[in-house]
Write a structure and sequence with these properties.
Structural class: alpha/beta
Bound molecules: guanosine-5'-triphosphate, magnesium ion
CATH class of the largest domain: Alpha Beta
Strand order of the largest sheet: 2-3-1-4-7-8
Shape: elongated
Number of strands: 13
Largest sheet: 6 strands, mixed
CATH superfamily of the largest domain: P-loop containing nucleotide triphosphate hydrolases
Radius of gyration: 24 Å
Helix content: 25-40%
CATH architecture of the largest domain: 3-Layer(aba) Sandwich
Number of domains: 3
Order of helices and strands: HHHEHEEHEHEEEHEHEEHHEEE
Strand content: 15-25%
Distance between the termini: 77 Å
CATH topology of the largest domain: Rossmann fold
Length: 328
């Protein structure tokens, strides 16, 4: 090891190397990490050891349930959609999840802080969307279950760091995902066997764009990225553009809000039914109640695709913000 470590770190390293059980390895590695002085010369060593620590913790979690599927990476979907927040270490994934949701994953300038996924709920007006903070995407240690979690999700937020090299980070991330047959919707056209791929909508985030002083740098990035990504400069620290981020997620999910109205009463505009864009009155009825779906004869619709209170049939397509009165 070319770095001169103080004696207590060398002793801690010895204990770590001698450790045999996974629990002992984790605890001795934590002590070893804490004894290494923090400066530029030890950055790489600390990053490598943090990565190892994350890996050991993830493995220990899997081992705890012998014979059963590891549930660390199984996050029950909640709300209108499940969105994974992914990217390399230290770009601010956890900080964004803290800023946007009710969850509180650890945020730290030490690389490889997050080692298990954490869900939280993000409100986009009256729609709740689940964001899932994830461990870093890292070529040197790819957790297959992280790839499965990404495949199951409805949308990916690809997070990069304006202070690092966002273009390289994006390219590496896309390459790694594609090696696991996950393709952002934008890049779909470049692939020959689309049926063997998981194609996901994605929004590209350039985080740490804390104020307008960073705008020039962000615009240079935009010029250098050839694809037309849905992308945003955001800041978890100053909350810059976080509202635009909420709506970018909403738009890319391809969902609409539809409200239910009981005959003779005002509609309840606080709780929408969330449907896929292109859904019909019949799809809406199925969401409200099975009996409505089976017995529906007609419906009245208020909104952009109909004149006020127009009588429509089951196949009438619905639009964002429509109000529907179902008749059986
Ligand atoms: N200036 C600035 N710093 C930020 C911002 N977001 C996060 N940071 C800092 O960047 C560092 C890393 O943040 P995290 O949220 O832990 O990063 P992460 O992507 O979750 O990292 P891993 O868990 O290792 O994958 C911390 O020191 C944060 O305070 C931001 O918008 N602006
Ligand atoms: Mg994190």
């Amino acid at each position: 090891m070319p770095i001169n470590l103080p004696p207590e770190a060398l002793a801690a390293e010895k204990r770590y190397r001698a450790a045999s059980s996974p629990a002992e390895k984790i605890s001795t590695l934590e002590v070893f990490l804490a004894t290494i002085p923090k400066h530029k010369g030890t950055d790489k060593l600390r990053a490598d050891l943090r990565r190892k620590l994350s890996q050991l913790k993830a493995e220990a979690q899997t081992r705890k349930r012998p014979g059963k599927r590891d549930i660390t990476y199984v996050i029950d979907p909640e709300g209108a959609a499940q969105v994974v927040v992914i990217g390399p270490t230290n770009v601010g994934k956890s900080a964004l999840v803290v800023a946007l949701t009710n969850a509180a994953p650890e945020v730290s300038d030490t690389p490889y802080t997050t080692w298990k996924p954490t869900p939280g709920m993000m409100a986009v007006e009256n729609v709740q969307i689940q964001l899932v903070d994830t461990p870093p995407l890292d070529r040197e240690y790819v957790e297959p279950q992280l790839m499965d979690l990404i495949r199951r999700s409805d949308l990916m937020l690809l997070v990069t760091d304006l202070e690092a090299d966002p273009i390289q980070q994006l390219e590496e991330m896309v390459a790694l995902l594609e090696e696991h047959r996950i393709v952002p919707q934008r890049c779909q056209a470049q692939h020959e066997e689309p049926d063997r791929l998981t194609v996901k909508p994605a929004v590209l985030l350039v985080n740490k764009a804390d104020d307008t002083e960073t705008d020039d740098l962000y615009h240079i990035c935009c010029d250098l990225i050839d694809d037309e990504w849905p992308m945003l400069a955001v800041s978890a620290a100053t909350h810059r553009n976080l509202d635009r981020l909420r709506w970018a997620v909403y738009d890319q999910l391809g969902i609409i809000r539809v409200y239910s109205k009981v005959p003779g009463k005002d509609p309840d505009l606080t709780v929408p039914f969330v449907l896929k864009t292109g859904s019909t009155v019949a799809d809406f009825a199925a969401k409200v109640h099975r009996d409505f779906y089976l017995q529906l004869r007609t419906a009245r619709v208020w909104g952009s695709g109909a004149f006020e209170g127009q009588m429509v049939g089951r196949d009438h397509p619905l639009h964002e913000g429509d109000i529907v009165e179902l008749r059986i």
